[in-house]
Design brief:
Layout (H helix, E strand, L loop, with lengths): L6 H94 L6 H17 L4 H143 L6 H10 L7
């Protein structure tokens, strides 16, 4: 901007500067509104991000607890499965033993025959070979009786353990169902976490974009503010110059009026005319010793 050389140019420059400042004020206002808007939108997105972050933390904590529960349930399931397997192996072994036993068709007949042999040996004198024959028969019958009792014991045991096996199967099925439900819940939480993380990343991208716009607009506003300060400073300086110039002009006009008035008063005096007190003051204002000589 060129330096104005006279009052007219100064006034024109002041007019132009005021217009520039008004335009800058409009731009600063618009820019400030955008700065506020971008900051508000960015902060709103940050609030959404905080909500998602809290939800993610809660879900992660829930997943950790669920992981521990799954771990314990798997351990319990393995123990139940091992118990059931042990019982199944035991039952299979006992049933194998049961099939290998030679069971008599009529246990009462065996018991009756043993009683007869005992009674016969107790009430008769028998020859040695007959006694040996009867002892061998009794031993064979007692062996059959023992196998029968063993078979009966196995059968009773198998009958008694059947509810235990059924109970273990039921408990194992329940644990497996619970485990399946927990694993399903774990998968749902993991899926929800993936969704939330994607949303969070998208929000972060939006927030970063808004913050970038906020920074750019704030810097633009700062540049406009700085430009306004320079123009306002220039305007102030020109107004000061114009005011000084006008004051100087006013002083010159007053001085010219006074000089003219002095000449008029001196003309009166030279003609011997009477002058007014105010006219006398004008003569003495710059030369108080005028009439002392």
């Amino acid at each position: 901007m060129s330096i104005p050389r006279n009052d007219d140019e100064i006034e024109q420059t002041i007019y132009e500067l005021r217009n520039e400042i008004r335009n800058l004020d409009e731009k600063i206002k618009e820019t400030s509104e955008k700065v506020t808007q971008y900051a508000k939108e960015r902060d709103q997105i940050h609030e959404k991000m905080k909500e998602i972050k809290l939800k993610v933390q809660s879900l992660k904590q829930e997943r950790i607890m669920l992981t521990e529960s799954i771990k314990e349930l798997r351990k319990t399931t393995r123990e139940l499965r091992q118990k059931l397997l042990n019982h199944v192996i035991e039952v299979k072994t006992l049933r194998g033993e049961l099939k290998g036993l030679k069971l008599p068709s009529d246990i009462n007949t065996i018991k009756k025959r043993l009683d007869e042999i005992d009674l016969y040996l107790a009430s008769h004198r028998v020859r040695r070979d007959e006694e040996r024959r009867l002892f061998e028969e009794a031993s064979r019958l007692e062996a059959l009786l023992l196998e029968y009792e063993k078979a009966l014991s196995i059968h009773e045991y198998l009958t008694g353990i059947s509810p235990t096996i059924d109970s273990l199967k039921k408990e194992l099925d329940e644990k497996k169902a619970s485990l399946e439900e927990m694993q399903k819940k774990y998968a749902e939480i993991s899926k929800e976490l993936d969704v939330l993380n994607n949303i969070y990343n998208e929000y972060k991208k939006q927030a970063d974009e808004m913050h970038s716009r906020f920074i750019q607009m704030r810097e633009s506003r700062d540049r406009l503010d700085a430009q306004r300060i320079l123009l306002a400073s220039r305007l102030y300086e020109l107004q000061r110059m114009l005011r000084g110039s006008r004051e100087e002009l006013a002083k010159r006009k007053i001085s010219e009026i006074k000089e003219k008035k002095k000449k008029e008063v001196m003309a009166k005096l030279s003609k011997g005319e009477k002058i007014e007190f105010e006219e006398l003051k004008i003569l003495l204002e710059d030369n108080p010793d005028l009439f002392k000589s």
